[in-house]
Amino acid sequence: MNDPVFITGASGFIGGKIAERLLGAGRKVRVLARRPLPDLDKLGAVIVPGDLENVAALRQGCEGAGTVFHVAGRVGVWGPADDFFKINVEGTRHVITACRAAGVRRLVYTSSPSVVYNGKNLAGVDESAPLCTTAPCAYPTSKAAAEQLVTAANSPELATISLRPHLVWGPGDKNVVPRVLALAKKGRLKIIGAGRNQVDVTHITNVVDAHLKAEAALARCHLLSDMLQPASPRERHLIGDITPGAAGAGGKAYFITNGEPVVLWAWINQLLRGVGSPEITKHISLGAAYAAGGVLEALWRVLPLKGEPPMTRFVAKEMATDHWFDISAARRDLGYNPRVTMAAGTAELIEYLKLGG
Question: Where in the sequence numbering do the catalytic residues fall?
Answer without folding.
Answer: 139
